[in-house]
Every structure is written in C-alpha cells, then in structure tokens.
Amino acid sequence: MKYFAQSLLKTIPVLFLITLIVFILVRVTGDPVSLMISETATDEERKALRESLGYNDPIYIQYFDYMGDLVKGDFGDSHRYETDALNLVIERLPATIELAIASMVIAIIMSVPLGILSAIKRNSFLDLFVTGGAVLGKAMPNFWLGIMLILFLAVNIEVFPVSGRGTFLHLVLPSIALGTGIAAEMTRLIRSSMLEILGQDFIRTARSKGLREAMVVNRHAFRNALIPVVTIMALQTSTLIGGTLITETVFAWPGIGQLLIQAVNLRDMAVVQAAVFIIAIFVILSNLTADLVYRLLDPRIKYD
Amino acid sequence: MENLTESMDAVPERKESLIKKMVYQLFKSKTGTIGLVIVIFVSLVAVFAPALAMHDPAETDAVNRLLPPFWLDGGSTEYLLGTDNLGRDVLSRIIYGSRVSLLVGISAVLLAGLIGIIFGLIAGYYGKTWDFIIMRTVDSFLAIPNILFMLIILAVLGPSLVTLILVLGGTTWVVYARMVRSETLSVKERDYVRSARAIGAKNFRIIVKYVLPNVISSFIVIATLNVASTIILEASLSFLGLGIQPPDVSWGLMLSDGREYIATSWWVATFPGLAITLTVLGVIFLGDWLRDVLDPKIKD
Amino acid sequence: MGEQLLDIQDLKVRFKTDDGYVSTVNGVTFHMEEGETLAIVGESGSGKSVTSLALMGILPPNGEVYDGNMTFEDKNLREISKKEYRKLRGNEMSMIFQEPMTALNPVFTIGFQLRESLMLHFNLSKDEAQKKGIEMLDLVGIPDSEKTMSRFPHQLSGGMRQRVMIAMALSCNPKLLIADEPTTALDVTIQSQILKLMRDLKIDSNTSILIITHDLGVVAEVADRVVVMYAGEVVEEAPVYELFENPKHPYTKGLMSSMPKVHEVVDDLYSIEGTVPNPSKMPAGCKFHPRCPLADEECTLVHPDLEYINESHAKRCIKV
C-alpha cells in the first residue's frame, strides 16, 4: 500500500507534463479565440472575447490561470452543449468503462487459452492457425472489423443490434471488435512468453517430480509467463482506450470516445481538454494497477 | 578438463555477407517473401494509379449509385467492385487510396524518425537538464494514448493532408528518441570516443558518427513496423473525419461512407478494409522478416 | 551390493531437427545395482545427459527413444503407460540438475515446491507435507529449515538451493537418484560439501545414485563404478579403482591426463585434441579415431564392439 501511494505520487509530474503539453498545443499552436467564436464575428467582438478570457496576459500568467482552473476541475463550458465540460465527460465515463472492461475480458478469454495451446503444441496446425490469426488480427483495423461484424451479425443475420447502448446484446459486437486486436497482440505475447518459460530448467524439474503435464503447464509455466504478459497488458490499456474512441463512433456507443470525436469535429476545446485529461488519468491508473499486480506476481521484485 | 569442455563449446561459425544472408533468409521465410511481394505490389499500384484506374476516383455517376460488384445481379463490368453512394467507382478509389496510405505512412514515420533522432541525440549527448526535459516529455507521451495528442492538435489545426503527416510524425517520435538516447549514452562511454574527445575532436560529430551506424538496423526494423501502425492510424483518423478530406481519396474515408450504407451495400465498406488489411499485413511480414535478419535482439 | 535395479540395453535416442533426425545416443548399455553409485563420465555432447533424461522420461518434445530397452526393477520403461511413468518420477526415481540457480521455480516458495511432490506421491495433507519438508531440509543440512520453507529460491545461495534440490529429490525415498552434474555450477568448497552430503545420504538410505559428470575428481570421490561415454556410446566401463589404476581406452586415458593432480605443479594441462564429433557428422569406423593417438587405418573402417576383458571391465577399442 505504501508502494502504491509512492507510485501515485510519481504520476503527478506526468499529469503535470500532460497538462503542459495540452496547454502548449492549445494556446500556442492555434488561436483559441477563433475556435470559440463564430466565423462571422467582428474584430471588435474578437478583441472583447480575448480580453475577457485573459488571452492578452503574458503566457505564464495564462498558464497559472489555466492550472488553477484545472486543479479546481474547471475546464470551462462546452460551447456546444453550454454546460460544464467536465460533467459532460464524467456522465459518459460509465459507458466507456463498460466497453473497455468487456473488451479486455473478451481479449483475455481469447488470448490465454490460445496462447498457451499454441505454445505447447508448437509448430502444429493449431499453432500455425493461431499465430496466423494473431497477425491478421493485428493487421485488421478494429473499426473495419466492427463494420464487418455489423454486416454479418446485425444485418445479414439479425442477432445483435446495429448500434447504441442498452442491453447486454448491444455490448457484444463493440467489445468483440475492440477486444480482437488486443487479443491478437496478447496471444502472440503469451505464446512467446510460454515458449520461453517451457524451455526453462525449472519446468524440467517440475516434470521430474512426476507432475501431470497440465499441472506443469498451468501451475509452473503459466504463473511465470504471466509476469511479462501483465506488463504488456498495461501497455495495451493505452491501445484499448485509443480503440474505444473509434469503436464508440462505429457503434454509436455513447461514451467519452464518441463525445471526444464530436468535440474535436466541432472544435469544442473545453470538452476536448476535459476528455483528454480524464482518459489520461484512467490510463495512468490502469498502468499503476498493472504495476502492482506485476509486483505481486514476481517475488523477486522488492517493494522498496 | 577445462580445455576439453571449452573446446567443445567453440563451434566454428561460417561468416556470410549480410546481403547474402538476407536474400537467403528472405526466400527461406515464406511470410517474408509474401510481405515483400505485397509491399511491391501496393507500391506499384500507387505509382501507376492513373494508368490502372478505369475512372477518375472523384467522378460521380448519379445513375449508377450503389451498384454492386460485377459478379452480382445488377453489377456492371464498367465498375468491377461496384460504386458508392455517389456513384464513384470503388476499385478506382481503392487504387488511388493506396497513394495516401503509403505517402502518409512513410512520410510520417520518416518525420518521427528525424525528430526522434535529433531529440535522442540531444538528450543522450548533453544530458542533465536537456535529458530531463526530453525524457519526461517522452514519458508523458508514453503514458497516454498517442491518439489523444493527435486529436488535440487536429482540433486546433483542423484536418488536412499536411496536418495529418505532421500530427502522426509529431506524436510517434518518442520510440526513436529513447532508442537513440540509450545508444548515445553507451557510445559516449566507449574508450575510442573518450580518447577522441580528449584530443579535442569535435564532440557532437563523433557521437553522430558512431551512434547512427549502431542504431540503423534497429531503426529500420522499428520504422517498418511503425509504417504498418501509421497506415492504420491514418485510416482511423480519416474514418473519423479528422484526416484526409474529400475530394481526396483515402481508404479510411471510404470506410466511413461504407459504414453508413452497410445495411444495403456491403461492398462499399468491405473492399477498402480488405485493402488496408492486406497492405498492413504485407508491411508487418516485411518488418518481422527484417527484424529476424537485421536485429534478432529486438523481441516483440 | 544387491539386486539389479536398472538395466539399460542398447538405448538409442534421436532428436527431430529441421534437417531430419539426429541421433545423439547410439546404443548405450549399462546396469545398476541397488545401493550402488554409478558415474557416467564424458565431455558435453557425449550423450550422457540425454541418457539420463531418457531414463526419467523427460526428453524435450523433439526427442524420442527409438530403440533399445530400459528396465527399472521389473518395469519396462518403454512400455509402461504415461501415468505409471509419472508415478515413478519424483517417487521411485528422482533427479537433481546442474543449475541450482534455474532449476527451482522462481515464483513459488521452497516449501511449496517441496510439499508438491510429497502431497502428490504420498497423498499427504499440507501440514504433514510441511512437517516432512522441514525434516528433509534438516537432513540436507539447511539451517533454519522452518523459515527456509517460506523463502523464495532467489533468497538462497547456490549451494543452499542445490541442497533444496537434493531434499526435494530424496523426499519420497527414491530407489534411484539421478544427479546430472550436481556440483558443476558451484564453488569448489560448496562442491565438496554437496558431494559429502551425497555420500552421507547414501550410507543412511539404500538409494542408488547415478551421477553424471565430466569431472573425474567427482567420480573418484563418490562413485563405485564408472561408465565412460563418447559420442553417444559407452567406450569403457569398470569399477572405479580399476579404472583409475588401469584405464584401457585411449579416450579414458586422455580424460585422466587432463585431470590436474593435487600434488603436482602442472604448467599446461594436457587435453585431448579436437572436439566431440557433431552427431549428424559421425566419423566412420571407431568414432574416436580422428582424435585418437593410437588410430591407424583399421580404426577408420571397423566400428569396435564393447568387449569385456574381465567380468567387470569393458572397453570399446581394437588397439588395446
């Protein structure tokens, strides 16, 4: 727990830098006023807005103001929805978390057995099939897979709804679309990790004890193979969250991703910043969790 | 006894030239061969697009909207893979779309590589403050998904081909920066570099001279594999309406049209997706093969 | 010495590689009696480790026994079911390996790994297995045995880990203990402690030990009888005193003279020229002839049989 607190502290500089980068991108690379005001506004109106937003102040004062607002959780109002941007984002959070978890579950259900099986049946037909499928899964854009799933399972055979959120059935296609790509990466990883572990001396020791092969694989090998897999799974969280953005758009899933993409298209900067910030926190927290799990799995790592 | 066991371990190895080894391994590796063939094929299609395409990719045909591929009822050999909602020829658009995919994929990766090499060299060579600033920036970029940074920049700058390349290049450079930095640090400590510096040789040039050859093979491998992911990213952003804008053609853009008509006209979304998958598959196969040949150290 | 425990006849093992099958054990024959310590000696690549893995039935997936017979007590090891074989492993026959650093699973405690085979073969409860485990650690001379049970392998030194391995291997009172280079990876002082431990344990129990080594020093310290292997074959077999007094095969002699003697100052250790031939490119005739000081034309043509010069001493050479 002490370790967790320490790691949490370490993420503060990262969050700080992210806000700095966002600030630079938003305030320095573009003219935020032109994004906030209609194109027909007069120069007078623009000037007035500039002044009222404090954009005529020196850049460092602007930055302190900006950070002050951030700490208070004030990202400003969405000019599209005319309501607090952060609230807007937080309302959408459950839908995105639901999709992300369902996708991860599907990825794990697919990749763990396939990765283990293809490692223990190395160079078999099954292995060839699984590794081939994994490369294909990586090459296929997940939004295209989503469209194809809609075509086959929602249009041709009307099993699942085409889009939207609501019932369990609504969740199936988007999470398969998103989970498959992650499953592909994880399968490759579990396979190579298992192959490496199965060649280790302690596996031979386990066999020499007379353990059943299933015990050797599931107990002695898999526990070790999990260690690198968890690390990479943490990196996959990033892919997962990136993937929700686009999957939500394909399936009209009312999550942060869909909101963010709309906001980008409408130049609704307050919402864009709030969404980016919330997603960043989400990703950092899942990385922290993965790090913690990693430490629990590997007794060789000390806690200090 | 010691000598005996040692002599046993020393299995003499034949040294072959790298080129010979590469060619040998290419034909030994079936996927490597397939990858190379696909990449060459797509490149040729991109280069000779005007000669290959039967129609102007932007040419609309109000009468022949959403025509199915030629082998289906109602299809026409005029439009081999059918037409989209504006009556544009799907095949011609796919052919032209390869240009954007390759152009964006390759130039964004080169840009990212250039930025990464420069920042990596600076961080590794100057150390201290520069290293701190650059590496913490790298950490931040790694901490959150690239696509978020891309979306912010695109929201600010607005979508266009050039913006797209800048955005993709400007957010994926961190991998190269890390690689170059660590190589720079190790080169800096080598005796010959130390002594070269001691006798007053121009520091930075020495570093560059010794670092770049050492990172080149890793660079080629990572860059190739990144072309694959960049092609997917370009398609994703264009699909979201944040990348290539009409009347330019991109596979991702075609997919977003196709998504709307999926209930009635499956071909509009199916074929561009196949084109992306095939191209990316080719690049991945090529990259994996390059890794096996050039840099067996890197693991996936 | 008592009843015959193990009989290996004409054992052949091959591995499947990209270029077809490669045979690394080419007709090995030897036997062991109850309570006996037999050493198999040879350079790496001689097939001695593969022989032991074949005996335990834990060859890597691409390896197989394709000819010969292995009889353990009254069981034909090539014919018993996988399940019966599993019941023997870790129970009637067990094994310790060369690398104590990597032979224990890093993510489980010593206790877990010790209890595992006890619970499996003796159907003990966790508490009973724990008790027996602590007894075993005491037996192999591990101080603080109770605490050690809850330690992880990386928290122990190499010598301690090898003691744990021995405790694990002996925990089910095996009739046969196979020790594959048990001391090679250890410091010299630790080496002699482990060898002493093995000698002591042998006096206490009636376990037969098959020790596999390239180190004639180890052989001299623990073995009753020695089998010398070269290129997947037995080239000489003799009781340990006879072998040291009166080695016959030129390869054995080469091994002897490359062994440093304690009271001699040696400037340059003698070593046998060349290396063990690659299993896929075995020379015709006697496999040792390219490295043999005595070889003549006949040796390049005739593959010698293993012949007994008295009832316990055999050699595979036509020149001596």
Notes on the structure:
The complex is a heterotrimer of chains A (304), B (300) and C (320). Chain A contains twelve helices and no strands. With 304 residues, chain A is mainly α. Chain A has a domain at 96-297: MetI-like (MetI-like fold), CATH 1.10.3720. The radius of gyration of chain A is 24 Å and the shape is globular. By secondary structure, chain B is an all-alpha fold. Chain B has one domain (2-294): MetI-like fold (Orthogonal Bundle), CATH 1.10.3720.10. In chain B, 72% of the residues lie in helices and 0% in strands. Chain B has helices at residues 2-9, 18-28, 30-47, 49-52, 90-126, 128-143, 146-157, 161-171, 174-188, 191-198, 203-239, 251-260, 267-294. Chain B starts with a helix and ends in a 6-residue tail after the last helix. By secondary structure, chain C is of the alpha/beta class. Chain C has an eight-stranded mixed β-sheet with strand order 6-7-8-3-9-10-12-11, sandwiched between helices. A four-stranded antiparallel β-sheet of chain C has the order 2-1-4-5, with helices on one face. In chain C, strand 1 and strand 2 form a beta hairpin. The two termini of chain C are 30 Å apart. In chain C, 48% of the residues are buried. The mean pLDDT of chain C is 85. At the A-B interface, helix 1, helix 6, helix 7, helix 8 and helix 10 of A face helix 6, helix 7, helix 11, helix 12 and helix 13 of B.
